[in-house]
Amino acid sequence: MRLHLKPGLGRHKLTKLTVAQVDALWQAKRKAGYKANSVRNMRAVLRKALGQAERDGLVMRNVAALSMPPRVPVEEGRTLTVEEGKRLLDAVADHRMGVLVLLALVFGLRRGEALGLMWNAFDSEARTLRVTHSVKRLKNRDRNATTKTRIVISELKTRRSRRTLCLTPELVEVIKRHKAAHNKERLKAGGDWTEHGLMFPTAFGNPSDPDTFSHLFSRLAKKAGLGHWHPHEPRHSGASLMLAQGTPLHVVSEVLGHASIAITKDVYGHLLEGDRRAATEAISTALLGKQPPVAPTDAEDTG
To answer: pLDDT digit string (tens) for 145-170?
Structure first.
């Protein structure tokens, strides 16, 4: 607000602020070199402030909500092939975080979501696993804190991000075996264990550091002979593999927890070209039918 919005819009009277003036600010920020996502964050702050002003009757409409946010280019990133996925899972099979890597790849989980999976969200009878929490590293705003950041467990806020995953019998058994190993680890820690209900905590029950897991994942990928990989890339891989197996786009969107199917389409729509081509061929055949090849005429035979 102080660095961007007040200098850019402060000279305008609140009740006279227009959509065009707000749009002009976003364009100026983009020309000044600010990334699209940064400008979208500015818009979100202004939209929230004007939303409160609208509720208080200070303005008639929220011009920030009516302004056009800059488009954020979405990149798919690398994806693992089925063979590479198998090599990765073989390399992590005996690691305490191996099941986390498996679930992240199968369901395209975000790093924080995978680390935030809870035991009370696992139902072996119904064969479901609910995604309800995320582990994050946040800035420590406590002035008396000894560290600049802290690791927190936060509940997922949106309905689309809070979702239920359907498990196969094989995945249920894998999670049960992980539960047994988890219980042994808890007993070994004894009084040093801090219970948070997490499926993939540290050896003493605390939330796992997302950055530490990123370094671990990279080492495990190198161990599998895949080179350097970031834990966000299995998310892309999981989505691509689901689509390659014929999973409908709207189902993939729900599994990934995207805010809308439009986001899924923007990122992975190019993978559906084969489906679109098959659909066109199907309707074309239905309407036009397949015509038999035309036999050459005598004139064509004699050239």
So the answer is: 778 888 999 999 888 899 999 999 99
Q: Which amino acid appears at position 199 of this protein?
A: M
- Strand partners of residue 123: 128
Helix (H), strand (E) at residue 272: none
d(CA 111, CA 280): 38
Is pLDDT of 291 > 70? no
CA 88, 156, 137, 29 torsion: positive or negative? Answer: positive
Q: CA neighbours within 13 Å on the CB side: how many for 301?
A: 5
Nearest CA to 90 out of 104, 79, 103, 101 is that of 101
DSSP-H helix ranges across the chain: 5-9, 19-31, 36-55, 63-66, 82-92, 98-107, 111-115, 169-189, 210-223, 233-244, 249-256, 261-268, 273-288, 298-302
**Cα dist. 38→46, 69, 125, 172, 186 in Å?**
13, 10, 45, 41, 43
Closest of 255, 260, 259, 264 to residue 166, by C-alpha: 255
Alpha-carbon distance of 169 to 7, in angstroms, equals 59
pLDDT at 279: 56
Give this prediction's pTM. Answer: 0.67
Angle value at C-alpha 302, between 297 and 303, nearest 5 degrees: 95
